[in-house]
Amino acid sequence: MLNPGVVGGSSNSDPFPAGLRVLVVDDDPTCLMILERMLRTCLYRVTKCNRAEIALTLLRKNKNGFDIVISDVHMPDMNGFKLLEHVGLEMDLPVIMMSADDSKSVVLKGVTHGAVDYLIKPVRIEALKNIWQHVVRKKRNVSEHSGSVEETGGDRQQQQRDDGDDGGGDNNSSSGNNEGNLRRRKEEEQGDDKEDTSSLKKPRVVWSVELHQQFVAAVNHLGVDKAVPKKILEMMNVQGLTRENVASHLQKYRIYLKRLGGVSQHQGSMNHSFMTGQDPSYGPLNGFDLQSLAAAGQLPAQSLAQLQAAGLGWSSSSLIKPGTTSVDQRSIFTFQSSKFGDGHGQMMMNGGSGNKQMSLLHGVPTGHMRLQQQQMAGMRVADPSMLQQQSMLSRRSLLDDAVVVRNSSRVLPGATHSVFNNSFPLASAPGMSVTDTKGGSSSATAAFCNPSYDILNSFPQQQHHNNNRVNEWDPPNMGMVFNSHQDNTASAAFSTSEAYSSSSTHKREREAELVAEHGQNQQQPQSRSVNPMNQVYMNGGGSVRVKTETVTCPPQATTMFHEQYSNQEDLLSALLKQEGFPLLDSEFDFEGYSFDNIPV
Amino acid sequence: MQRQVALIKQSLFDQGYLDEQFVELEELQDDANPNFVEEVATLYFKDSARLISNIEQALERGSFDFNRLDNYMHQFKGSSTSIGASKVKTECTMFREYCRVGNAEGCLRTFKQLKKEHATLRKKLEQYFQLARQAGPKETARRPK
């Protein structure tokens, strides 16, 4: 039978497109089952998902975890086109739409929203056999160097294939490899591509984590108010990047900053979610401080994962580190401290640093809570220099199990947010507990509702206390996260944060774990679970379940999740309103940005 | 026995209960997934039963929210199409058409017919799968003429 990890004849020949990692989203279980079977027959690595939100969470958590997305148009929780937009903006993955509806208008909509293809149901396996072409095509377009594309694209595929050959067992390395590959490719492309850039049909610039970090550093250096695209461009000194790219990126960045409530440029330097590109092990966190949030928020892993994904659009793989019971010891903030010129008030969450934030935690159940509390407490500590050091150190050390908390000066005192340095708030503060999922996902889930309340409530105070100016980032995100549940703002939220696409590296695995945590049975295999072919993310009632062959979702957990969401949403909205943060929906100007860039 | 199975299957196709898509599904079946088609069918009937009951409730309410009905039916049509339930699919299309023009009476009538077709198909397929299992795996994979 098909062994996803093993490709026939791969040793000597090019197994591609076997091993292509496909995420298929459809609310119809019959179709989903059929598609999965068909895709497996094509030797692809399939992950199924019956809810768009879950799909986004998955994608965010595993930035580099999928090659292509296939989605139905009509879905109850989110319009397929919205999902398409998000994916295009945030992850820049090719998306194929499908529907039983073959009317011209719908197909046209698919085209205008940037779908790379549109399949009419019933989908035949022949149609699926060739979807890999879209992956290759996209890579070619993304890469700015036409000449090297094939090679690098080929390398990348090779890389993926190799990873696939590992049986998806070693996601870390694969993602790391991919990441490294991608990064290298980007760099080399940018390096030798100046002339070609102008002559080529201008591909969309993908703002990777590193790139964005460089950008932010340049902006900070110049001063946000004085940062002009030309100067930024010069400072960044990235080949192949044009002034226009920088200008539009800057525009988005400014809007983002503004949204944060007039945070000074200083905060801007906090560099949202850009994970320290330099630390490959961490992978681009994409500003998911969700992990830290999770830790702090004691939210069940799944919720955290979901929230994170929802809110930030940055799925930092680092976020979810299974087995983070040891988190408190090792909460690590990933920063791009090296990149930031300014001292960020990075909050270090040290497991033990104190429980100042106890108040935040009281909703939190059990062990998770403890950890999170500690973390939260740690987070509050604002000792920039210390933080930085610690973060640096911890960063390195934590890779494997601690929740990586992106701490940026923006740390939100609010339990959930504090950790994230990303400019993009992690909406899913409650979701932060992801890291803990391994240990106690179920309990975490249970706690979900409560902690969030507490956290949210404590937000306002914390924000005031927060010297780190992080807060601004978070609230919007929080709103985002919760709203995502309803499917409206979520998209908005995502687009903003996701405007900066980044190749996720390591984080992928970790995030994957986060997401999957729901089912207890998932615990073990989780470590790299996102990509295994047998994973299914089904949302019985709103929770993400990872299952290895069967979907088993503890019913209560599912329900709980749902409820939690609504609760949180209410809380967030209330909170946000309270704080005077505009609700996310209108906020995301990034959408405009992204759309322009969507290749149709 | 095997011949019997083949005959039953052939008749399902001839009578228009199943279409080409069903064959596609059968081709996905192999040694590692010997009961794939049956599993899909089971899933389909379970899910469609839910949809049917939703639609029923919506119709009983008498308010005729055509949009909502259309949504349900779209889903129904999608899954029916996916397994190749040809007659059911036809009824779905008709139902949606009635929804589109706001013909409540037509919707009710069509829905009745749809339920009938759905039930018939279910019975026939159950029969078919049962026999097929008894007959052995080979037969089920054979393409009808």
TrEMBL record, chain A:
Compositionally biased spans, kind Low complexity: 171-180, 492-504
Pfam families named in the record: Myb_DNA-binding, Response_reg
Stretches of the chain forming a coiled coil according to its record: none
Subcellular location: Nucleus
Domain called HTH myb-type: residue spans: 201-258
Domain Response regulatory, residue spans: 21-136
Compositionally biased tracts (Polar residues): 519-532
Protein family per UniProt: Belongs to the ARR family. Type-B subfamily.
Task of the protein: Transcriptional activator that binds specific DNA sequence.
Name the UniProt record assigns to this protein: Two-component response regulator
Organism taxonomic ancestry: Eukaryota, Viridiplantae, Streptophyta, Embryophyta, Tracheophyta
Automatic annotation (TrEMBL), chain B:
Compartments where found: Cytoplasm, Cytosol; Nucleus
InterPro entries for the chain: AHP1-5/YPD1, HPT_dom_sf, Sig_transdc_His_kin_Hpt_dom
HPt domain ranges (all copies): 33-128
Main location: cytoplasm
GO cellular component: cytosol; nucleus
Pfam annotation, one family: Hpt
Record's keyword terms, sorted: Cytokinin signaling pathway, Phosphoprotein, Two-component regulatory system
GO MF entry, a single one: histidine phosphotransfer kinase activity
Highest taxon above the source species: Eukaryota
In-chain residues carrying the UniProt-annotated modification Phosphohistidine: 74
Gene Ontology BP terms: cytokinin-activated signaling pathway; phosphorelay signal transduction system
Known role: Functions as a two-component phosphorelay mediators between cytokinin sensor histidine kinases and response regulators (B-type ARRs). Plays an important role in propagating cytokinin signal transduction.
Entry comment, domain topic: Histidine-containing phosphotransfer domain (HPt) contains an active histidine that mediates the phosphotransfer.
Protein's name according to its UniProt entry: Histidine-containing phosphotransfer protein
Source species: Brassica carinata
